Amino acid sequence: MDSQSQAIESAKKYLAAATSVAATAMLARTIISAYFPDELRRLISSSLDKLIGHFYGEHVVVIRQNEGLLTNDLYDAATTYLRTKISPTSKRLRANKNRHRTNIIISLDDGECLTDIFEGVQYKWQLVIHRERSNSLYAGSSPVEEARWLALSFHRKYREVAVASYFPHILERSKEIKAADRQLKLYMNELGNWNCVHLQHPATSETLAMEVELKKTIFDDLARFVNRKEYYKRIGKAWKRGYLLFGPPGTGKSSLIAAMANYLRFDIYDLDLNGINGNTDLKRLLFGMANKSMLVIEDIDCSINVQNRDDEGSETETEPGGKAVTLSGILNLIDGLWSANGEERIIVLTTNYRDRLDPALLRPGRMDMHIHMGYCGPNGFRKLVSNYHAIDEHPLFEEIEGLLKEVEATPAEVAEELIRSDGAGIALGSLILFLRDKRKVGGEEVKGRGEESHDGIQNGLECEKIDREEKKVGSEITGGRKRKSRK
Ligand SMILES: Nc1ncnc2c1ncn2[C@@H]1O[C@H](COP(=O)(O)OP(=O)(O)OP(=O)(O)O)[C@@H](O)[C@H]1O
Ligand SMILES: [Mg+2]
């Protein structure tokens, strides 16, 4: 055997030995994590990390919970992220629930390892908790000090990739996981302050009875909005979006608001203008709102000072004594300087009578989208019946759909009939009687009206296009049958 072959042979032997040493070391690390006491485990683990790193060409990156006095955001994000990566083979987990949560959180326990693969690269994680007797001289301080860190190992050729794409991915995902975990809140103003309760409205885009295309337009619009931080910055506009929901009572305006909040995971700030002591209060409440939230003013036409200026005088006018909210206060909140406070805000106004609002509120661009919530048409009915009775065909559908073309019934009225019985046949029968009664009362007045939503949706999409071209214009879209105008 010549000297070159000898060198190759000994290199092979060396590699085989190294691989088996490293594999043994990996196995040892797993066993040690499970069975050895804290102190000993930490010592052996860190020596094994070095050994594994040496043979496998790995980096071990330590991500500590605290760096000096500051908490480490990456540690926090990674522990959140890793909760979603726990595999069925993980042995030691911890479970936690506190009074701020409704759900139980399962996470890695001390010493437990897991592997994550991102963009084809393998990352190995281990949680390490180290406790030692405290040297603190302060009275009352804990006798034991605890340090926590995550040890992340990956092949050293992926260092750039880890920093440039894996860590940002973890930070981004953890934000989404936290938002989805969080219990939403409903804030209401009382005596000039916000009080809150948990928001427990179950409406989602899935449960809403609306034209499919309209629903998609709205929820796509929301999705685009939350992803446009840089865009808003670039065009020099506050990062906020306004929706005006209009339509008769019981057509789903409040349900849509709840579905939007549930979709975005935004808290709702439900502003009662009648409970506010003037514009100064209004401003204070606005400045007291958190980011990523929805400001809702329901039945805006019922707040006397924001009605049509032809009826109520100038937009800067105040009530005697100057204690009422004025239209100018509302406009300032929607798109004036006050509105630029905070970011990622949605503003929703609702009204039963859009024509009663001051034109200043309706001006193109003031509310970005005008959404008409209409009476229940055949499509809305099919959605409701599938929600309430899980059926999508029934011999009574034909008569009901015919009646709905003639009669103005709100989704709330239809829902009320459908919920009367667990039996689909009985509920549908009851709905038919209700609609026939309505037709009798309505008589000639409502005869011959069909579903009018399609044109409305087309208009809405048309306006959206203009909006995307950064022109200031509001778009109107419609969600059902239009109201027959009544004098
Ligand atoms: N489009 C809809 N889809 C599903 N359910 C609806 C819809 N509209 C109304 N409902 C049902 O009717 C109930 C009342 O509707 P909601 O409060 O959303 O109407 P609204 O338009 O806000 O009425 P108001 O103008 O009186 O405030 C809801 O809780 C829901 O059960
Ligand atoms: Mg409502």
UniProtKB/TrEMBL annotation:
Highest taxon of the lineage: Eukaryota
CDD domains referenced in this protein's UniProt entry, alphabetically: RecA-like_BCS1 (cd19510)
Start and end residues of each stretch annotated as Disordered: 444-487
Record's compositionally biased regions (Basic and acidic residues): 444-455, 462-474
AAA+ ATPase domain location: 239-377
UniProt GO molecular function: ATP binding; ATP hydrolysis activity
Cofactor(s) needed: Mg(2+)
Gene Ontology biological process: response to stress
A Pfam short name: AAA_lid_At3g28540
InterPro entries: AAA+_ATPase, AAA_N_dom, At3g28540-like_C, ATPase_AAA_core, ATPase_AAA_CS, Mitochondrial_chaperone_BCS1, P-loop_NTPase
Catalytic activity: ATP + H2O = ADP + phosphate + H(+)
Keyword ATP-binding (UniProt): yes
UniProtKB keywords: ATP-binding, Magnesium, Nucleotide-binding
PANTHER family in UniProt: BCS1 AAA-TYPE ATPASE
Family to which the UniProt record says this protein belongs: Belongs to the AAA ATPase family. BCS1 subfamily.
Listed name of the protein: AAA+ ATPase domain-containing protein
Species annotation: Platanthera zijinensis
